[in-house]
User: What shape does this take?
Amino acid sequence: SVAITIGSTLPPSPQVFSDYESWKIFMETYLNSKNLWGFLKVPSILDPEQDEKALDAIKFYCGPHMRNIIPYVDCAKSAWVELEAERKEFQEAY
Assistant: This one.
């Protein structure tokens, strides 16, 4: 069925940062499958449209706690870096 096929290609949303590593792996796989993973490999935005798609995917597929960290971030790399930094702080606190 179409719903099952679509649902199985979406990365899971972590409810808490304890699920971050799993989310990160699935998100990387998802972004690679859409040819949107390159944002981490370059120091600046090469293709604003692709970057916007990657940022939208990151914001859409992360859980509410994570989404609250990056509401005003304007590029995918910044969102990824912010989430990783927040996860490290969360790990240190818990």
The chain has one domain: 14-93. The first helix runs from residue 2 to 9. The two ends are 41 Å apart (CA to CA). The mean pLDDT is 80.
